[in-house]
Amino acid sequence: MKPCVYLVGAGPGDPDLISVKGLELVKEADVIVYDYLSNPYFLTLANNKCKLVNAGKRLGYKALSQEKINKKLISLAKGKYKKIVRLKGGDPFIFGRGGEEAEELKKNNILFEIVPGITSAIAVPAYAGIPITHRDITSTLAIVTGHEDPEKKSSSIDWESLAKMKSIVFLMGTKNLKKNLNKLIKNGMSKKTDIAAINWGTYSKQKTVLGNLENIFEKIKSNSIKSPSIIIIGEICKLRAKLNWFENKPLFGKNIIVTRARKNASILSKKIASLGGNPIEIPTIEIKPRPSSYIQKRISDLNTYEWLIFTSVNGVEIFFNEFIKKNSDIRSLGKLKIATIGSETARAVNKLNIKVDLIPEKYTAEGLISAFKKNKIKKNRIFIPRAAKARDKLVRSLKSMGNLVKEVKIYDTVLPKKEDKVEIQNNIYNEKIDFITFTSSSTVENFFKYVSPIQIKKKKEISYVCIGPITARTLRAYKIKPSLVCSKYTIDNLIKEIVKFNKK
Length: 504
Prior knowledge:
alpha/beta, five-stranded mixed beta sheet, 34% helix
């Protein structure tokens, strides 16, 4: 395989707006050279061996000049790397200098591919409820850079023709806004023409300001609209009053910390994002399976048991991974009945086309104990693969009922090594945080290895969300009162209750 540089458009910000091909390349890349305007979330999807290079190009700041970026791409392609992804905000060929980079690659006989992205010129107005074309209002559209290269001898923008357009989108439009608007007015555009400025479009922190050519500059100033922003000019801006949808989502603008293990966090993060919230992933635990030989030895007599109990999704995944290694046939489970604590854990079992025989009404150890008592399950052989750090309530109670219980600790929940403690503290202490979610006692305990309970209590705006009473009890041990304790201990219900709480 020859080295190839992929110029990938990451879209306007919302990570769901990248193309399928672009996402696959991000996951497979040997190197990712990324821009300031590409969502940092994509970097978490890169494989462990992937080299990350910050090109950092933005207005007023250049970590690397364009010339240096070009040289970097060439040197990477001529080095040991095969799949080099140049990740660019929006679309590579719409004011993204993708054409310049492709030219340099061609000049140096380096293979390249262009993977288009959704440009902010289209996506951001859509997220603000502004259709940039409309049959009854305008059938033409101009997309213009708000920041022409200052080294150009003369402007390539035909301001006279532009002033006659019914729909105009300026990208990177805030710094030179006053100058650009004056040029439009000078060439005949009315001062009363509608205009919108959209900051951080498609993100949860999106902010939209409406006005006209005469007053928009002051409105932008008073609302602290800065880069990255786009400007839309034309009567189409009036449609926002009817079509604004994104900023009306139930969790719009809310910064919500997700403390789950990174491999589990995406489910909760996606649900938050789908409701307009901004999930901030701060994984406080890492799931570390015990050695395969250790687990294999302890599941060798599995067929002698009558019940198999799972207390978590992680337990299901790790157990069956080892079980399938040892037994290629699922029928080796024999007549084992399966119980799970919680519907999510049950779903993980069901995905393997295996039936769950017992799910307690309350998704706790106490709930499962009650279910066993109710069903008079006594003097049975019970096998429980679970986390090393788990309450002993379940094992003790089942034994007291006359059952023979074998507990196998198949994984540990440890503090992630890769997380930057200083960066985490900056995210929490210096940013506005609306909610912190805890989905287990371990997430609580490890969270306070990163931050001080005394310091965080000073941020009165934070609401603390616990998935259930056990997690809430652990939080209270740190002298912090939970704002919300879920009535049903599932991720789906946690989200529902946050939405309900937020409406108060």
